[in-house]
Design brief:
- This protein is about 10% helix and about 35% strand.
- The radius of gyration is 10 Å and the shape is globular.
- The longest helix has 5 residues.
- Strands 1-2-3 form a three-stranded antiparallel β-sheet, with no helix packed on it.
- The chain has one helix and three strands; from the N terminus they run αβββ.
- β1 and β2 form a beta hairpin.
């Protein structure tokens, strides 16, 4: 499932980093300090 803009904007920090995946290897990594980084696998 493709990432939606609202999903990325509403991603809240958690205790550990987590990832929101796209269907083609792109993902958004959300850090505990609130940082968001786009990564390509």
């Amino acid at each position: 499932m493709p990432l939606k803009d609202t999903n990325c904007r509403n991603a809240k920090p958690r205790d550990k980093p987590y990832r929101l995946y796209d269907e083609q290897g792109l993902y958004l990594e959300v850090q505990p300090n609130g940082g968001r980084y786009w990564r390509l696998k």
